[in-house]
Amino acid sequence: MIEKQLLFVCLGNICRSPAAEAVMKDKIKTSGLDHLISCDSAGIIGFHSGAPADARMQMHAIRRGYKLTSISRQIKPKLDFNRFDMVIGMDDQNIKDLNSLSRSEKDRKKIFLMTDFCLKMTFNHVPDPYYGDNEDFELVLDILQDACDGLLEHLKTQNHLGRK
Ligand code: 4NP
Known about the structure:
By secondary structure, the protein is of the alpha/beta class. It has a single domain (4-159), classed as Response regulator (Rossmann fold, 3-Layer(aba) Sandwich), CATH 3.40.50. It is built from six helices and four strands; from the N terminus they run βαβααβααβα. It has a four-stranded parallel beta sheet with strand order 2-1-3-4, sandwiched between helices. The chain is globular. The protein binds 4-nitrophenyl phosphate. Residues 10-16, 47, 128, 130 line the site of 4-nitrophenyl phosphate.
């Protein structure tokens, strides 16, 4: 039975949040917790709805063994805040937008900033790589891998997942 549902959110849902979803799914699977934790991703804007992840993001991710399969969709505030336990934005603007879309204190308690889970890296946001180069896409993956390690630890300790 799934106990925790995670939604990763960025602006367009074609670079950072699809990568976060894939990295986290991989770590969950490796930890043997895929029956307990599920992941999805969405964008603040619907401009890229229906599109696969950005080809550059896919290319950098596959080199590290992550296959990006998600199709871009815009966040549906009512449905998504009801369904998901954690709604995790990539930067401060995502957090501001998610707060604007939230309807209650219960919703707002579900909003988290991805880099707050980083264990080793000291970034306070996952920088938008859309207008960037190869290094920017690599940096996104470095930050996400570290943040996903921390997020998994958080889920294990806060929710005793996999430690019953
Ligand atoms: P993402 O990157 O939020 O990481 O998916 C972006 C994708 C598209 C745009 C901006 C950022 N855009 O302006 O279309």
